Amino acid sequence: MPPKRKRRRGFGRVRKLPSGRYQVRYPGPDGILRPADRTFATVADADIWLARKRVEIEEGRWLDPEHGQTTVEDWGARWLASVSPQLKAKTQASYRSLITSRINPVLGDRELSSLRPITIAEWVAQMKTAGLSPSRIRQAYRVLSQITASAVDNGLIAVTPCRGVRLPRMPQTEPHILTPVEASRVVRNAKPPHDLMIALLAFAGLRVGEAFALRRSDVDLAHGRIVVDENLAEANGALVFDTPKSHQKRTLTLAPSLVKRLAAYLEALPGGADALLFPNTQGQPLRYNQWRKAYFDPAVSAAGLSDVTPHDLRASHGTWVADRYGVMTAAHRLGHSNASVTTRHYARPVAGRDSEMAEASDVWFEGHDESGRAREGHDDGPRDGEESPPAR
Length: 392
Description:
3-stranded antiparallel sheet
């Protein structure tokens, strides 16, 4: 009886190791033979793996395993360099800080292909144990998610490990919504010219950085308007002028009384069109922490208020405008491209409105009988001596 001929495989190679397990090698799209990432107990298991790998290559889903060996630190640096031109200076600094202080020390030496959701969950747990705030943890996770998503998009790994990870909840904090009277008290108790700037926060809805960046050329006294096209931010201790958040340039009409005060202030303001409206005593841009400690917080205390931030004045303005003129108008005043941002973060119910609506509902209800017809004195029908309007 002739000996059995050895079956020739159409794809890949299988050989038995001294341990009794089977090793697989397969040709990639470039023709280079590569070993499987594991060994197999039987020839049948090895053949099944080879068949799946062949389909993966034929369908264009194959990833070069060497690419997955790129470390998190190396790919993170490459990713940051690619996105930095589109980021604001403050965002760039924040991303770089998170990568340097939170991501690289723990995950930087790891290969991208070695990361699993449990790896990321353990990293998040470590940060929580170390006492990091929920906000900081979520920021770090968001940056790592962008890094790994970019690795997927570029064919380094098949799926991102940043999935199914439970993050710490953010504490629910509500802005302190002031009444217009309370906001006016803060303005009156602030030292000039900071009273004028605080008025712009409360009655024009400016961000603090936008108020810090205002220049003489941004004020249009003839039409009673200001143009908001710059924002002053701090990035790693350095002051940076940039476009407003979300790059939303806007023109705001001001209250006539506020325009009048601005006009008087501009008459005595030195410098040309590029001169800052509110510089510090040395003529340099203001820094938030110093300004708040020296001028804003004392004005709040003198007004008999507490727990009020500059951002609360902006939120208060958004609430007043949304309550009376609608969310879309408030979104424009605040510089939001999407009104949902306004309702989610700024517009809040105004005290007493629910009672007012109940009274209005009572009038509506009492104005109709059980048949649904308007009662006498409440209908819109013709009065004596008037003709009925033609049917439409």
